[in-house]
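Ticket #4471: structure export looks truncated?
Reporter: QA, pipeline team
Priority: medium

Steps to reproduce: submit the single chain below to the structure queue and open the exported record.
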Amino acid sequence: MKVTFVIGPSGVGKSSLIEREYAGRREVFIFNIARKAKELFGSYQAMEDGDMELQAINASCSEAFMALMEGKEVVVEYYTDGFDDGLFAMTKKAKSLGVRIEVIALTCDVDEAWNRVQKAGSAYFPSARIKEDTEFIFMGILEDVEFNLDFDRICEIGGEGGTISFFRFKKGSQDRFFFTTDENGYFDFEPDYEFEKKEGVNYIEEFDNFKEAFTALLDKYPIFGLVPLEVHSRYKSEFRSAYQHYLRGKQALQANQKWNFYLN
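Actual output as written to the record:
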């Protein structure tokens, strides 16, 4: 896991450097709410719409969280103005989790920075506008990573509608299991009380054991008819037994050769 903070005041070229050096790299996720809003809706104007902004926040949270849990690099654009306790708090939290940290500080002449901002016009979104949101939301992501450090992806299955992922994590001294799909966006686990639920969050059902969770997964999704992308070696025997049972009950269907490859 690595977090790279690209920092500096407005107009110094933070976004330009990130697009040039990091955009399009599979092992990197760029955490910038406004950038995600433009990606989802085609324009920074989406940040003026509460529902669209919430969708951008949810997508950014989910993708940054999963990137860190998968050991990838997350690049965070951060506006500095001399009141940057939030940056220090984020770097301190990340370091406490064993996350590698890099800080890239950009500067340039004040007049040049101003000219860049004016020249960009509507193509420019000032990172100053999302400074506090970046601090608050990314700190929450790091806290979620801390909670889920003992965390296994049991399998990932692909289909036309996206992917389905099945996970094990440690909650206290107890193993817990859940599964999620691309459409879940930013997720959290079901709270004990209804009033604790937050708007815009998709709540995921937890299971006490592998068998219960796996049965629920099979009941909801026809996973053996889809394409396996990853199967954790520790759980192959359970998947093999379930797959053999599936084939006995679906004799009219041809065996999925990709599952055969993963489970042999």
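Status: closed, not a bug. The export was complete when the record was re-opened. Leaving a note from the reviewer for reference: DSSP finds nine helices and ten strands in the chain.
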